[in-house]
Design a protein that fits this description.
By secondary structure, the protein is α+β, with helices and mostly antiparallel strands. It is built from 4 helices and 13 strands. The protein has a single domain, classed as Alpha-Beta Complex (Creatine Amidinohydrolase). This is Peptidase M24 domain-containing protein.
Length: 229
């Protein structure tokens, strides 16, 4: 199975959960449904601390913790809610890594950004999408992980948002062993193009807000240009 196929398992699972998630579900139930769906679609296991789905909702969407410490909260999906889901399927040491922040209003998932009624949530997701477009526009075959780190953190700060990641990074290389990952962080002089795949996953919040946003894709170079897997 290829990297594209394993990433597709994560994408299919996200589409599935968006169609079935409803107010009143417990986050533990949502996690179980996501993990069972990934296994059904062909994942053998989950590469990040054997947790297939990291899920946060409401005022816990600003939380950033290691998988070693993560526990799914004993919370229910609300009628109007913000939910972040981060998926980590694995098959034969090939990883998928895919996250989205989902908006639920009046009991339904809102797919279109323009249709989100909560202005704060809409602006948070809009910035996430802008940052991913900025990634495509900014990166070239000479860009290092550190250069991307500084550039994107400037963009986040200019928008009056903060980087919530507990290590301060914005993504990592895709490897076969978790301990081999390198990060979009200060001091990493490796060129992005020297890694076959890497994630970009800014976890951000408006300053002094209780709500956080995450949007993650895997990227790779094709003919010198950056593309999403």
């Amino acid at each position: 199975m290829t990297n594209q196929e394993v990433q597709f398992i994560a994408k299919q699972t996200m589409d599935y959960i968006k169609n079935v998630i409803t107010p009143g579900m417990k986050l533990t139930q949502v996690r179980k449904m996501c993990e069972e769906k990934m296994l059904e679609l062909g994942a053998y296991s989950f590469w990040y601390w054997d947790i297939g789905a990291f899920i946060f909702s409401g005022d816990e969407t600003t939380k950033s913790v290691s998988g070693k410490e993560y526990e799914t909260a004993d919370k229910y999906i609300e009628e109007n809610d913000i939910v972040t889901i981060d998926l980590s399927p694995q098959r034969n040491h090939i990883w998928g890594d895919y996250a989205r922040t989902i908006i639920i209003e009046k009991g339904k998932v809102i797919e279109s950004l323009d249709a989100v009624q909560n202005e704060e949530w809409r602006k948070g997701l809009a910035l996430e999408q802008m940052l991913h477009q900025e990634l495509i526009d900014f990166v070239n075959d000479a860009t290092t992980f550190e250069e991307l780190y500084y550039h994107m953190n400037r963009k986040i700060a200019q928008a009056h948002f903060i980087n919530l990641d507990f290590l301060g990074n914005l993504g990592h290389s895709i490897e076969k062993k978790s301990e081999d990952r390198i990060y979009i962080e200060k001091g990493n002089q490796t060129k992005l193009i020297d890694k076959e795949y890497f994630t970009f996953e800014p976890h951000i919040a408006k300053q002094d807000s209780m709500f956080g946003y995450k949007w993650e894709n895997i990227y790779y170079f094709e003919d010198g240009k950056l593309k999403a897997l």
